[in-house]
Every structure is written in structure tokens, then in C-alpha cells.
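User: ok so my PI wants both of these folded by tonight, can you help

Assistant: No problem, let's get them done. Here's the first:
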Amino acid sequence: VHQSKVDFFCKLGYGKQDICKVLENLGQEALEDDVLKELIRMGSKPQALEKQAQHSPLKLIARGSCSTTPGLKWLGEDESDASNSLRPIVIDGSNVAMSHGNKEVFSCWGIQLAVDWFQERGHTYIKVFVPLWRKEPPRQDSPIADQHILEELEKQSILVYTPSRKVKGKRVVCYDDRYLVKVAYEKDGVIVSNDHYRDLQNENPEWKWFIEQRLLMYSFVSNRFMPPDDPLGRHGPTLSNFLRKKPVLPEKKCQPCPYGKKCTYGNKCKFYHPERLHQAQLSVADELRAKIKVSLALGQEEGRCQCSA
């Protein structure tokens, strides 16, 4: 008898644990109607109704509280594609190395610090431009420190040497600044340098706008590469948005309720209540409609169970 009743209510969709609990309370000889009423009173629902409630398109949003979804979203991009949302980085190797060496020594360690900083932020396209003659042994008038770093960066396809040669004992050097500005312009990237490239701005009007808007300056503080948090000034984008192809939406901030937990407006309060984050509620009219729908669904299910019993 016990097993037959359990099987009967399992077919109706109720959980086996709830059925056994009710049978223990009412006894094995309890009528099916009494068992069904006790299951409804306990709040037990058939699995079909639970699944329908879980996949219901009706979304409850609390008034007077912020959404629980993350406020930061990429514009037109998936979060999984975060690495593709970052701009290419083109570094003026000579400018960075001389800046780290206090304009006296070509410090290759400064280039490595800058590369590491961008790699830690997730940038995958990083190019450093250095004249080819920097591969030659250092001289007294042009000292070089940590020259082996250039070889390591070249093996990683990060360092690019600009051409240079000797003609009748004189070195002929190509203009490396034109190389890096051209590559950064074509890649729609960011130029890392403290040089303003005035000559190149006058040479090409398109480059003028690009250099003004995409030049990232920096400083070295105790062997730490530090670009500014506001590369284009106080009213410009943040450093994070400056290095992205598309900006990040700021999180919507809600004004907290001045009355806090003592607020008596309830659902009608338009201010933010942190204690109501998990109390998802509709408007009064929609809430009543939702309750009626749920009660009708439960009544229909109860009627079906009684008829089958």
C-alpha cells in the first residue's frame, strides 16, 4: 500500500522525500485526498511546475534597488574576447631606453619594463622599434646597458630593428620615428613615447590627429614603468579606456535611500535599498497578476489530482 501511494504521487510529479514525509505524519492508511492536501500545504510543487517557474520569461526586478547584473560591459564585444579589445602597442625603444638611463645610457632594461607592463595587462600585439646600429658593441660616446635584452626581445618577435648601414665609413640611419608612427597608424594602436613628433605632424595631417590622440607618455619611478591615469587630460578617457578599442560603460550608481531600513515607502521607494537586493518585486498591479496566475495554476493542478484520485 505504501509503495503504491508513493508511485501514484511520483507520477503526479511530487518528490519522493516529500511523499514519504507526509505518509509518516498522516499514516499509511491516509486517503489520497488528505495526502494531496498535505503536500500542497507543505509547499511541495510538482516538478513540471517548478521547471516552468525556473524557465519563466517573466523577470522580477526590484524597484528602488540596482540590478544584480554586472554594470561593466564591452560595447559590441563579448567578455571572452577581452584580449582582442585591447589596442596594439608600438614602443619608441630609443626614447624609452634613454629615458630610463637618465638620457646618459641606453638602458635596455627600461624597454623590458615597458613590455612587461603591457603584457601583464593582456596586450598581445607589442612592437618595439630600435635602430639597427644598437646591435653594435657599445662605445664611450653611446653607452648601452643590458644589451642582451635586445636579443631576447628579438627572438620573441617583439623587437624590430630599423635599417642602417655604413657608406664610406659614415653611418646612414633611416628615420625610425617614421617607422613606428606609420605602423601604429595602420594598426590603429597606441604610440608609447615622450616625443611629440612635431616634424611628422607637419608632414601628414592624418598623422597629426593620430599622434595627438594616441600618444601615451610615461615616467620611470624607481624602475617602475608608470603611464598617466589620464593620458589626454583631466576631461579625457581613463588609461583603461585609452588602451581599449571600445570604451567600457561605467557602472550605474543608485542614490541610497536617506531613511535606510526605516523607510516606510516599501515598493514605491525610488531610492536604492541594499537590504532589498534579493527581494525581486514587480509593481503592485503586476505583482497581483503574477500571484493570480500562480494560484490558478496550482488550483488547476489540484483539480487534476483530485479527478485522477
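One down. Here's the second:
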Amino acid sequence: QRVVLMDPSEDPDDILRANRPREKTFVFDVVFDHTATQEEVYVSTTKSLIEGVISGYNATIFAYGPTGTGKTYTMLGTDSEPGIYIRALDDLFKGLGAIAEEVDCTVSMSYLEIYNEVIRDLLNPSSGFLDLREDSRGSIQIAGITEVSTTNAQEITQLLMKGNKQRTQEPTAANGASSRSHAVLQVTVTQRSRRKETGEEVRRIGKLFMVDLAGSERAAQTQNRGKRMKEGAHINRSLLALGNCINALSEKGGSRAQFVNFRDSKLTRLLKDSLGGNSRTVMIAHISPASSSFEESRMTLIYAYRAKNIKTQVPEQI
């Protein structure tokens, strides 16, 4: 459960810094080393949330970290080692299959990317840029997004692989296939059942958000220029907005309770309910063991450590 980070740039013989600790320790719910399998990561982070989605709660999984640390691998994986997307949907369909006789279930899925603060549908890229709208109940909707209804995990795997090929990826000095956008997979589970006593219809909706964030960037490390530089600025802007929301939420109820500004970016508006509302949320923070990435690793661990302090009240289902 413990990550120890040692500053490689500090000279142990430097007298001025002799009494300053070189090590920084962070404690998390669970920590994985380089030998961890996709199955281990999924079971420890996400598996327990699927039951909640079937019960009508919302759940969100973030993959966060610097560019090139393996976020897309954790979320999407490969054919032989599928990631969290595929494993979560597999378990979701198995869980819904077990209650299919008592309850009428429908599962719909959308897959989008937020690139340079505009929203693109990855299942139908030709639809152009889409708008975020708020309905009368205050929930955020995306106008014109493609929603696919299926209970076949194989079909969804193919759709995700196809959608991921439409994602904006460009080479940078830090990563040859750097994701330049945030990818959001939204799965909505709607259940309808009838109460035996009254015969009235009961409707339950659970939402599962799985978010593969773009890598946090330092231009000095990625050596970005021109268009890449502009993309990096947009990526960092939305991650900063997300960080500000996390900071404000983690201090809520404390002496420095702050206003939570979800309107700073499209990403935070879309994930408003996932961060501060009726949702169980997991952040999987990725870091690189390379000493050249020390600063990125430090900032990532501080960011994730703050996210750990968020306490949300999940209302009980009636």
C-alpha cells in the first residue's frame, strides 16, 4: 500500500541538504509493481464496483498519469491481455444474466473523446463536434451521441478496438503513440421490474464511466512544438480543472470548504456526477520508474493522494 519516491537529483554529500529527507512516502488503498497482471489490477480496483452498477449506483474508473506510463494498456489492453473495459463489461453481462428472469435489462454504451475541448463520437467520427447539454433534471447529456445497445461482450470489444483507432494519437518525444485526447466509455444499465404487491413498474438506472485520460504533459519532457504544444496546453488545462475540482471536493466539510467549479472544462462538466455525486469512484494513477520522470511521478502521486481524500455520500436505493 506504500509508494516510496526518492529524488535522484539530490546529492547525498550535499551538506546544505543533509538533514532533509530524500524520500517521500505516499499511502494508497493498493499499489502494484511492474509484475502485476491485468487480472490483478482489475480485481483489486474495479470488480467490486460492478455489483453496485447492477444495483443502480453509478461508478467511475479513471486512468491518470504522465504520457507513456500505460494508461491505455490498463483500460483497453490487448487481445491476449484485455484491460478494464472488457473485463468490467464481461462481469456486468454475467451479473445481468443471473437476474434476467426477474428483471428486464437494457445496456447502452457510448464512446467519445474530448480533444482540444471539443467532443467527438468515436463510434461515429463523421458526426463532427457534439454539444454538451443539461436537461431539466440537471443531468448532463451529449446531443447526437451514438448509443449502442447490446449484451454481447465480443461485439463491444470489436466496437472499442475500432473506436480506439479513431482516437487522436500523435508521436511525442516521450511516447511514440501518445493519446492526445481523453476517452470516455459510458455504459448505462436500465432495469425494469414490477412489484408483485402493487403491480407498478420499478425503474433503476446505473451508469458506469471508464475514463482513459490523456497523459499529463511537460513541454520540456515531450519536446512539443506548434500543434502538439497547443494540444498539450488543452490537455493540461482540462487536467488542471479536474485537479481543482478534486482539491475543492477533498476539502469539502473542512475548515476551508470551497466552491467546486465543474464548468471549467468539458471533462469536468461531463463527470460532474461521477466526482461529487451519486458515484463510487476509483483513480488508477500510473507512474514511470525512470529517474528522468521523477517530477511527473511526484506530481501524479500528489494528485492521486488528494483524490483519495474525497468523501461522497452515496444515497441508498429505495
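The longest strand covers residues 182-194. The two ends are 35 Å apart (CA to CA). Good luck tonight!
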